[in-house]
Structure formats: structure tokens, C-alpha cells
Design a protein that fits this description.
The protein is an alpha+beta fold and 721 residues long. The protein has eleven helices and 41 strands. It is globular.
């Protein structure tokens, strides 16, 4: 897991050498690099403003930093350089920074194993020797045989910024389709490798985004989704519409790929294609934006030239096809079941009145279902921690899987006939341990246990339930050193996400372990907007109800202070992506409540998020500021960029973003940081740290992760006083 959770860049221009251009650039640089004094301690680059005013439903909204939306512009690049100069001059002088980075590097240097999975007679798994920038994919003939390197992404770039973004292995285990992402971009290029020889074939698939690959059973090709080739100059910020589903035959050029399905009349529709285990059906899950509701179509691959059939054609709920038994599809859905259930749909009688309930909704939230040993393996969340249950095909409970404790379990993958599988278990104090599980007997054995130089027994985790503004009970995990004194003096980091139906169960973090070592308290709040309690919990933090999320987070902070875990000067808040929006919103609503704020790759300009890359897809979560006046009013009421007030003492803040983030474009953070520096009054530093050759977070090299974590902890050590 990344150090933060999150959704789902400029290109170099050729330098123009002329006297006129040099003079103009010099003037721009001089203007930007002029500094203004803020408070008693910090100076920041002066950021120019423009006379840009937009009108939304009769409301005039100024946007003086609109120019920062162009990442390729020379003045934007100069501004980035000037801001990073100020930020790193501050960070470089912090006394604890070097020591913290050394300790992080020491702890990070352990073998990290991914879960083995089987294709054909071979096993495959990921492994990082310790400080490798990217994990390596290995192939192994048996679990006891000598593994061999199948794909090492570290050899693809000198700085680790080329990452594996996805893999798909043919059913017989002989061919590997793999996606590569550069510098953290969502854009992927897919290739194909012969598993036996380790050599790449001629296949090259470009302009893939938000897609994996699904092989046909004969291994002759795979299905994938892509967009039309974008403009090279604007590919990192331009809007993405009209995804198409293709079939690629091995050995042929991408230009020969077969268009399987598209909808020219529905620019927002996206398509995820997956082949059933028996190879008979192509299942097409149709998505629209970030809303978890989807459609389900299918194509009978046993019939030449068969048409795509619409099985579920209304946007009523989420439908996840588990597998099939002939013409009967097993589907996980939250239709008429906000915490989800499993139903059987017969293609011969697909009307909902003929659906058969297999696994009924329970008090826990059903998050995923697989098939092993001809049984369902169902993963649940109970108050945000894992439970796993085994059911017979008729829905009869076979057993509960015994898990080590209050934590998170993941895995249980494999084929329908497999008796053996693997899963991982982790908690806030226990690193990711891989278990081998026998589905017949219910026995678990440790397969790989990491050797991390962290004494988990020195810490404890407890779960509390606090009351939000409207009376809603919200769960929160708190981890700290045993014997902690509740005297209000403990430096505390409060983390959350609160959106997009994303759940935050317990997870182990090397970075957080260092924070705990230094005497810090780590708190994780499971806010509304997430998926911890099903669709109702999610919907309670969407659109017109988004303020509930911020109220939940503020209430968590107030509870920690009231219970004397910490105090406002000692309390920091952190969140990434939608969580960055969360931090930006609450620090502008209650600046006095927090000692520090760490908004990472956040959505800060809520009036223009839909103008870039995949941002339009988030309108299902946030609302539409252009078409709906009520949604505009709700969004405008909390948009972080628009609620910074001149002369306000804001908490010490380090905004983080990256120059290649094409998920939440860096303009959000750029504009927010510029406005924050202008509005802020006081001696708290308000900085922006802009990573280079990095994106939204996925595929970030280990070296960059460690550096960023060291800067974060050193910053908090210096400002929480």
C-alpha cells in the first residue's frame, strides 16, 4: 500500500534561443522571484495575478492564478523552481531530517514479498530486496524451486521512475502482458513477454489508461481498453473521453486490433473487459465516472461474430460478476442491499424477478467474492477490519477464516478448482505477512514473514467510536506506544480519506513506524463518504452531503483533544487526493484547530476539477457546478481554494504534489499554495513541495518515498510545538 490512499505534466518544449526571448524570460523570472515577507520568519515567491473572473449561476468568482494551470509555460516552470527553492532551503536546515531519513532507510531495507499466484503449472510473485525502487516480478516452476527474474522494472530507467502498472498472464502461464508507466503518469504502454525465454515479442499497445488486460483461453490475444491518441503537448492535462474496448491478437500491430465495443453517443462511458474462467463469455463492465454504479454486457465467445448483449442496462447499482456456471452468472451487487449480497442470474431468464439470492446481506459489508474449491470466499469489513467467510455454492456458511487479529486480510485468489491459495495479513503494528491457506481444511500456515526491525509489541492499537456533529457514530483507530500519558502533549497525526466508497482498514507503514518511534500518535478515522459500512455510508458523504465528511474529521480532531491524546498545537492532519481536499477544506474551516496540515495531491479548486484529464468522472461524487445550482452552492461552500481568508493564521502547512500527476493535476496544489501564502498571517511556514518525474503516487520509486517521508516527519517535528 502506498503511504496515502487515493483516486484513480509538463512536457519539455524545445528551447528557443533568441535575444528577445531571453530578455522576456529574464523579466518573468525576476518578477516571480521577487519575494514578499510573511509574518516574522518566512518569505515566499511573489505570485503574479491575472484578471480572470468566471460566473457560475450568477455568482462572480475570481481566479487570479489561472495561469498556473499551464504546466508547460515558462512562467509556471519558473514559479515551481522558486517555490521548491524556498521549501528545500527550509527542509535542509531542519536538524532531525538527516537522522530521520537514515532511520527510514534502515527500516525500509527488508525483503518484501507479494502473494504468489498460479497460472498453468507456474507460480509468479513480486519481491523487493529492500531498497529497490521497484519490485521485481519472478517466475517459479514450483514453490520450492529456484525463482528466476521475469521482469525487473529497475533496469528500465536509471532513477526508478518507470514502473509496472499492471500485468496479465495467459491461462497456461506461457505469456505475460504487462503495462509500463513513466514518471507516475496514468498513461500506460503495454508489451508482451515470453515467460519461458524472458524475451519480449513485437507487440506494443499505446494510449492505455484505466485498463488492464484479459487473455482469451487459447492464449492468442487479450482484451484491453484505450483512448484515442492524445496531443503530445497536452496529454498530461487534456480531458479523457470516449474509451474503447479492443481485442489484440498476439503478433499483430496495434493498428490491426479489433474494436469490440464503443459508444460514440456516450463520451463518458468506459469499458472493462474480462473473460470468464471457462473462456466462453466476455464480460463488459460499463462504468461512468467515479460512481460505483455500472452496467453489465456480455459477448458469447463460443459463437463467431456474436453481438454484445445488454444484461444489466440501468444505472441502479454496482454489479460485479464473480464467475459463471454455464449460462448462470454469479454476481455481487448492492441492489436492494447497501452492504452487498450475491445473486445468481440465468441468461435464459435475466429479468430481476428471476434472480436467485445466494448470499444474503449481513450486518458486515461485503467487499469482494472469489471462487476456490467450488466454494465462495467472501471478504467482509466489520467496523473497518477484515472478516473472511467460506460459503457453499448454495450460500450455506461453511466456516469463518481464522485471522490473526484486528487487521486487514487480502488475497484468496485462484481458479475455481484450486484447493490452495494465499492471503496477506497486516495491521498498524504488523508488517504484511503471507499465509498459505488450505480451503478444504481451513488451515493457515505462514509462507513468508518479513524481518522488519520494528518491535510491534511496544505499541497498541485501539478502536474508538466518536460522535460527529449530527450525532453519527464514526470509528477511528488509534495507535501509540504502550504506557502513553493522556496529558495533551503528544504529537499526533490524524489521517483520513472520506470519499469514493474507499475503505481504510488497518495497514502497516514503515513511515508511520518511525513516527510512532518518535513518540507520535497515529489516528485513522473512517469517515462518511468511504465504503466501510456500504453504500449508505458512502452516499452520506457525497455531493450535497459532502460537508458531513469534513464535520466527521473535525469531530475526530476535537475528540482526540478532549480525551487529552493531544492538543491543537500538537495535532497534524494528513490526506492524499480526495483526502487532500479533506485537509484543505477543514484547515480553511477551522484553522485554529490544527498545528499542522499535510494536503497531498489534493483536489483544491472544486470549481474546475472537471476541466482536466479524468476529473469530469468525479462529478458523480462531488456534483456538477455548471449544470446544477444547488450542487454549485454546496461545492463552492467548501472549495479549499475559495475559502482562504486574508489575514488568517493558518496552521503550518506543507502541500505536496508532483509535476507528472495527470490524475489530480498539479494546478490544484499550485493555485492553493499561491493563495495560501498570500492570505496567511503569522510565522507558521506554508510551503509547497513539488516532486519531479513523479505522479499521483502509483509506481513511485522507493528512494522518492523515503525522501518525502523524511521531509514530512522533519517538518512536523519542527512545527508541532
Amino acid at each position: 500500500m502506498l503511504e496515502f490512499h487515493g483516486f484513480f505534466m509538463p512536457n519539455s518544449k524545445s528551447f528557443r534561443s533568441s535575444v528577445g526571448f531571453t530578455i522576456i524570460l529574464a523579466i518573468v523570472l525576476l518578477f516571480i522571484l521577487m519575494t514578499q515577507t510573511v509574518g516574522n520568519a518566512m518569505t515566499y515567491p511573489v505570485t503574479k495575478t491575472v484578471d480572470q473572473v468566471d460566473i457560475y449561476h450568477g455568482v462572480k468568482v475570481a481566479d487570479p492564478y489561472r495561469w498556473l494551470e499551464n504546466p508547460d509555460a515558462d512562467d509556471t516552470k519558473a514559479w515551481v523552481d522558486a517555490q521548491n527553492k524556498v521549501t528545500f532551503e527550509y527542509l535542509n536546515q531542519l536538524p532531525d531530517r538527516e537522522r530521520i531519513q537514515k532511520r527510514l532507510t534502515e527500516l525500509w531495507n527488508y525483503e518484501k514479498y507479494g502473494m504468489p499466484f498460479k497460472r498453468g503449472e507456474r507460480y509468479f510473485y513480486y519481491k523487493n530486496d529492500g531498497l529497490q525502487n521497484q519490485s521485481v516480478l519472478y517466475a517459479i516452476e514450483t514453490l520450492n524451486a529456484e525463482p528466476r527474474v521475469l521482469l525487473d522494472p529497475n533496469t528500465l530507467s536509471s532513477d526508478g521512475t518507470v514502473a509496472l502498472s499492471g500485468i496479465s498472464i495467459s491461462d497456461d502461464g506461457s505469456q505475460l502482458a504487462y503495462g509500463l508507466s513513466k514518471s507516475g503518469s496514468d498513461w500506460q504502454e503495454w508489451k508482451v513477454r515470453d515467460v519461458v525465454t524472458g524475451n519480449d515479442l513485437s507487440d506494443e499497445i499505446k494510449w492505455v489508461k484505466f485498463s488492464g488486460a484479459s487473455w482469451t483461453n487459447d492464449g492468442k490475444g487479450f482484451y484491453y481498453s484505450r483512448y484515442t491518441e492524445p496531443d503530445e503537448k497536452t496529454k498530461l492535462e487534456a480531458v479523457n473521453y470516449y474509451q474503447k474496448l479492443y481485442y489484440h491478437r498476439i503478433g499483430e500491430a496495434q493498428s490491426a486490433d479489433v474494436l469490440v465495443y464503443d459508444r460514440p453517443d456516450q463520451k463518458e462511458w468506459g469499458f472493462s473487459g474480462g473473460v470468464t474462467e471457462d473462456g466462453r463469455y466476455l464480460i463488459i463492465s460499463v462504468w461512468k465516472g467515479s460512481d460505483r454504479k455500472n452496467l453489465v454486457f456480455y459477448k458469447d465467445l463460443s459463437q463467431p461474430n456474436s453481438k454484445v448483449v445488454e444484461l444489466i442496462s440501468t444505472w441502479d447499482a454496482e454489479f460485479d460478476v464473480i464467475d459463471n456456471d454455464g449460462s448462470v452468472f454469479w454476481v455481487k451487487t448492492d441492489l436492494d442491499a447497501p452492504r452487498s449480497r450475491v445473486v445468481a442470474i440465468d441468461l435464459a431468464n435475466p429479468d430481476p424477478k428471476h434472480w436467485k439470492s445466494i448470499i444474503s446481506q449481513t450486518d458486515e459489508t461485503l467487499k469482494g467474492v472469489g471462487l476456490l474449491n467450488n466454494q465462495f470466499v467472501a471478504s467482509y469489513l466489520k467496523d473497518a477490519h477484515s472478516q473472511v467467510k467460506i460459503y457453499a455454492l448454495d450460500g450455506t456458511l461453511v466456516r469463518d477464516v481464522a485471522l490473526p487479529g484486528l487487521g486487514s486480510a487480502d488475497g484468496f485468489g485462484g481458479k475455481r478448482s484450486d484447493v490452495e491459495t494465499f492471503y496477506s495479513y497486516t495491521s498498524f503494528t504488523e508488517p504484511n505477512t503471507i499465509y498459505r491457506y488450505n480451503v478444504e481444511t481451513g488451515n493457515s500456515d505462514v509462507f513468508r514473514k518479513p524481518n522488519v526491525k520494528v518491535d510491534g509489541s511496544a505499541y497498541e492499537t485501539k478502536q474508538v467510536f466518536y460522535t460527529s456533529k449530527d450525532g453519527t457514530k464514526v470509528p477511528m483507530f488509534i495507535t501509540y506506544k504502550k504506557g502513553l500519558k493522556l496529558d495533551g502533549t503528544n504529537p499526533t497525526l490524524l489521517y483520513a480519506y472520506g470519499g469514493f466508497n474507499v475503505s481504510l482498514p488497518p495497514f502497516f507503514s514503515v513511515s508511520n513506524s518511525v513516527w510512532l518511534e518518535m513518540g507520535g500518535v497515529y489516528a485513522l478515522a473512517n469517515l462518511r463518504g468511504g465504503g466501510e459500512y456500504g453504500q449508505a455510508w458512502h452516499e452520506a458523504g457525497m455531493k450535497l452531503k459532502k460537508q458531513n465528511v469534513f464535520d466527521d474529521f473535525i469531530a475526530a480532531a476535537e475528540w482526540l483533544i478532549a480525551e487529552k491524546y493531544t492538543s491543537s498545537p500538537k495535532l497534524a492532519i494528513e490526506g492524499g487526493s480526495n483526502g487532500g481536499l479533506l485537509v484543505g477544506a477543514v484547515m480553511t474551516q477551522r484553522p485554529e484547530l490544527f498545528g499542522a496540515a499535510l494536503p497531498a495531491v489534493g483536489v483544491m479548486d472544486m470549481l474546475r476539477f472537471h476541466k482536466f484529464t479524468i476529473g469530469w468522472a468525479w462529478q458523480g461524487e462531488y456534483g456538477d457546478v455548471e449544470k446544477s445550482e444547488p450542487e454549485f452552492k454546496a461545492i463552492y461552500a467548501y472549495s479549499p481554494l475559495h475559502h482562504l481568508k486574508a489575514g488568517t493564521r493558518y496552521p503550518a502547512t506543507m502541500v505536496t504534489t508532483a509535476d507528472h500527476d495527470d490524475r489530480v493535476v498539479p494546478a490544484h496544489s499550485f493555485k492553493f499554495a499561491a493563495a495560501l501564502q498570500k492570505a496567511h498571517k503569522g510565522d507558521n511556514p506554508v510551503l509547497i513541495r513539488i516532486a519531479t518525474k513523479a505522479g499521483h503516487g502509483a509506481g513511485k520509486p522507493t528512494k522518492k518515498i523515503i525522501e518525502e517521508a523524511a521531509d514530512k516527519w522533519a517538518f512536523l517535528r519542527s512545527v508541532l510545538r
